[in-house]
Structures are given as C-alpha cells and as structure tokens.
Structure prediction request, 309 residues.
Amino acid sequence: MRFWFLGSGSFAALCLASMVRKFFFERIITGKPTLAGRGLKETPSCVEETAARLGLISERTGPLSQNENLITAITTNPPDVLFVIDFGQLIREPLLSAPRYGCLNIHPSLLPRWRGAAPVPRALMNGDSTTGVTLFRLTEAMDAGPVIRQIEIPIGLEATSADLYEILAREGSQTAYDGVQCLIEGSCQISAQNSEFATQATKISKTEFQISWQQNSLDIHNTVRALVSSRGAFVVVNNMRLKVWRTLPVEPPSEGTPGQVVSFMEGDPVVLCGKGALRLQEVQCEGKRRVTGAEWACGVRLKTGEVLS
Prediction:
C-alpha cells in the first residue's frame, strides 16, 4: 500500500505525528508558509514544522488546481490512499478519484454534526457532552462524503479544545488504520451521511473572543475552553484585555452585580455572572505571561466586592 499525506493545520500536524507510527508516507504535502509579525516573517505550516521535527521531508504547494506537477503525479502514478486532513482547500477532480481507495479525511467530529472549519470549538461552545472522530471519503461537497468509521468520545466538564485535539488525533490515527484495513479486506460497512441532521461549524468570528459577565457562567466556561487552542477568550478590565485561559463554574456564594468578585477559592477570584459564578483559574494580562488566578488577584490586590469592568 502506498500512502500520501496532505495537510497544513495544527490538527493535521497532531494526526501526522500519530499516524507515522502506523503508516509510511511516500509524500507529505503542505501549504506554503504564511507571513506574520511586524517583519512579515515566514511561518511554516504546522505540518511542515512537525515533519521536520520527525525527520521527514515535506513539500509545499499553493492552490492545488495550479500545481501541475502534483496533478500529473497523482494521475499517472497515484497512491492507494491520499489522506487529506485540515488542509484548507477543497479537493476536486482529478485528485478525488485518482487514489484506488480514494481521498480519506479524519474529521474531529461526529459527522454530519459539525461540518466545517471549527468542529471542536463549536462542540464545546454548544455545550455538547460528546464528540468523536470520523473517517470518511472525500467528495466535492464539504465534509459530506460517505463514512467509513466513526467513534464517539465523551467531553468532560474541564476538557479544553487542546485536550480534545490531542485525543481525537490519537483516536483518529487508529481509526484511519482500522479503516484502511477494512477497505483492503472489503469488510467496511460504509454509510452515507444524512444531511438532514447536518450542523455547520462556522469559523470563530473576532467578536466571539470577547466574553461578557452578563452571560451565564457555563456559557463563558464553554467559550473559554473552546478557544484555548487559538487566541483565547478575553474580558476587558480597566480598559485592558484580560485573557482567560482556565475557569470553573461554581455556585455563587452571594448575590451581586455581574462582574463582581464575590469570594476567593484557594486564592482564585470567583466572579459573579449573569447566572452562576466563575472561578478564574488561569489568566493573562496584556503583554504579561499566564499566571494562576490567585497570582493575578494578589498582584492587583483584588478584593471581594470589586467589579471587573
């Protein structure tokens, strides 16, 4: 069996790191570096960085439709499977049908639930109690192809998107291995997705990163843990951004105004929300390092009764 890997993002990199224990990839193809920072420094894709760390050779591509060398290679001497994971480009013909067993995707969701760009953050922000990983065959419609294998994974109250990506990449790697075995044996029970039950995991917008104490504590907690793997959720305190990295919903010990510090738990401030209260366990002021809620509260001499606004 001959395998190629096509991916760019952080979930693809986690999958690659896990999959190389089970698959030998003839080619690892990834997107071109992005330009970031004040000096517009080139930043390689997460897959390129991971491949280099693992001692693997990767190659860069721009838009696939313009990569004549790749199209020629896959149509004249195609792999048996092309894994396409977290790549950010739609895959079209002739790539789709060139591999003998198709282009396969490991998707961090229970498809058709949460098709799209941000399945893990959307599952957390929605308060889902379960998520999962799906191995499916790509078609021209986004995330709508037939399912080869799928497993379900519970979401604990304190699980973050970073935790789930690690688990789903590891489980997805095993699912991909089992799926390929059943494709070879011809024993897969491949099932079509029912689009009537599809939900869309749209990209997180800029406005969703700012949380408000007027929200209920569980919604804020779900947003915080959903955005851990990206820029992080924040509140504005004294006209400065305070990033909130780790929280825990708790019962409010007293009544008050949303945003008011109503108590401390092991030094961490407990802040009243629109409904319930939230223990701030890890925060970060602008330009500062992450600290525990207790360290921050001590540093700013926070007292019970103060309102964070």
